[in-house]
Input
Amino acid sequence: MVKGYEVVIGLETHAELSTESKIYCSCKNQFGLEVNSQVCPICMGMPGTLPTLNEKVVDYAIKMGHALNCTINRVCKQDRKNYFYPDLPKAYQISQADVPLCENGYVDILSDGEVRRIGVTRIHIEEDAGKLLHSDKFHGSSLVDLNRCGVPLIEIVSEPDMKSSAEAKIYLETLKSILKYLDICDCKMQEGSIRCDVNVSVHKPGEPLGTRTEMKNVNSFSAAVRGIDYEINRQIEILEAGGTITQETRRWDDVKGVSTSMRSKEDAQDYRYFPEPDLLTIVVEQERVDELKKQIPELPNAKLLRYVNDFGITLKEATFVSESVELAGLFDECTAKGKAAPKSYISWIVGDLVKYLNDTGKTIADTKLTADKLIDLVDVINAKTISNASGKKVFAVLLEQDKAVKDIIAELGLSQVSDSAALEKIADEVLAANEKSVADFKNGKTNALGYFVNLVGDVVGGSVPPNFDKSTHGSSADLVAMVFTENAKENPWKTTYAEEAGFKPGDSIVTHFSAYLGNANIDHDSKTGQRLLTTLSTGLLGSASGLASCLADYDASYAINNKVSFAFIVLCPEHAATIAKDFPDQRAARDFMRETAAMPYKFYSQETCVPGKDFGPYDENTFIP
Output
């Protein structure tokens, strides 16, 4: 509904078929060749020539008919559609009028989370026209290129079932992905391989359908959306002003964002259809129709639903992958052969792989990546043999070089060091070789931690196991624990300290860090000690019991770090009771539980807080229900 009007949209989609030769002659069917180099007396419309139907065109049309759930007319004919245009040398086009090859079908699309069924009136075969060339170099004239004349087309005519430009775009994208899956059209819109005519009308609810107008040869989906929206508003403005809509054909100018009238809309009688006398009736055996149906793969709309329902993939990811034959093929092979969760594969495909393909302009076939190699990579990451960060380095090599995952890991030295004693020895050596930095750290320059992180990372080649046991004590062990935490920033909040160190809710992690502070000669109650302790337990480690312990030992932290504590509770609401239990007094615990009772929280400035409610101490901002 737009401005009180119902919108009715129907589309006529033309797709050039990827046959080797044209529809009625043996001229090459290829885009971009020298002007008028792929022509012969037949496609030039010379008198006395006879066309011969390309059998592959019929097969491709039947495949699309099966994909769109159509009835296949095994006996049909071809007709002459008579009209004059400079790029049509015969002054007629061979098409199909009353008996198309396929009819009465449908396609399901997903719009706003709901399945919408769009009817397909018919699919028929026809020949394309030539192409007019316009240029200032021609001194006011236009030239014609007949290379496209006779290129085979299927025209897919929808029912007027679409109610918005958004639905029209989804329908077009669905048709495009189906054509690519069937491998019957390259769908290169910049080459005119797929284009559409748009029919639009509007009417008040309960009134008869309005008069439709048609926009011809819109050659991009985004242009179709803009053209439809423009036409809807144009028609509504005319009707609101008391005018009437004229049935006509209009030309969409995507640069100017307007449509202009071309001619009054023709009806079927204007084309003076009659059976093509130079071509025999098309007769397709039932066995052939059945055989072509068996060749139909799982289609993208079916894949999308399967990915979402069976694998738990997000709708956005499922749509993105299912629309690409290559990406879907790789993902399907991974899920069929691999044992890891499907989401593990999808993250690499829609992330690093797609970025590489976009940056380089390559296809998956141009790379060295295979499903088996991606499966191996995910397996070694899940086994903690390498970190996810190291996995990205391996993946980059897999794209360029034909090597096994284990060989790349060995060559780059990416295997994680998991021996605690070996790691502590490295940390001791780093501390001993950097006494000044250690002294700076002890004196409150906590940014020296980053320097230690880099040094230890250099020694172990960045291969720090994110699940390293941090429960050991001693200055070097605690430094290593902090280093590992820093290196585990791939997922700093979700991977909690409590999970990695084996702590249970209620355990006091602050005891562990108090020991570290003591060994580092940092005053337990100093601002530096308090800040370091709170930062480690909330910002880096994200531990429920660590936060509880910090707040219990330093009740001032409840006021100072109110915002931080609420941010953590939003992530881990199940630990709220544990944290509240360890507060130093009942009032603080009661306030804390009241404030965390309603989830999720929204972030507001202090000025927006509801007056009269005691939410406890505030920082400059606070979380409220």
